Amino acid sequence: MRAYLDAMDTAPFGPPVPAPPRVPATLGPKMLQLAAERAQGAHPLGMPVEHTRQARSLLGPQALLAVTQLVVLDPSRARAAELARAYAADALPNRLGLLRDLGFDDVESLPGRLVDALVATGGPEDLARRVAEHLDAGADHVSLHVLTATPDEPPLRQWQELAARLL
User: What is this structure's pTM?
Assistant: First the structure.
């Protein structure tokens, strides 16, 4: 990634002046440290609140920390939990070590505590609490990535419900 950023800085066509802010999608400590050195912040996706706390610590107080929280808004707790588990399983491969370092044991078996940490479920009030937890842990911005059983269709109903209750 350092070489990539170096190449961007020295490209013959040059960066726009002034250079646009860089906020790379980062997860691991080394990438977060690189973002602290060479970017204006970081954008972690789909990580627990504990990661937000760690990211803020590594980035320092001035960098932008814009996290994305995975959410399932479904009136059925059972359906929400099932969908959350499926998405959490898909997210695991590149996060195993990071999640262990954050104190999650037995990551491969996807314990309920881990699924709950990765994917917020419930009603708008539940999701608002998770957003507040990220903000309290040092996030400057929290976006919500709404997960549904039909990922090829925009979650219009969920967006409308969230907007009506959270804005």
Answer: 0.89
Looking at residue 42, the DSSP 8-state letter turns out to be E
Which residue is associated with the tokens 């370092």?
A: 101
Report domain 23-166's class: alpha beta
Residues 28-40: tens digit of each pLDDT: 999 999 999 999 9
| Residue ranges per structural domain of the chain | 23-166
Q: How is residue 75 written in tokens?
A: 């009136």
- Are residues 41 and 66 in contact, defined by beta-carbon separation less than 8 angstroms? yes
145, two tokens = 């990535």
pLDDT tens, position by position, 83-95: 999 998 888 888 9
Q: Give start and end residues of each alpha helix (H) in 19-146.
A: 29-38, 49-59, 77-91, 96-101, 112-118, 124-136
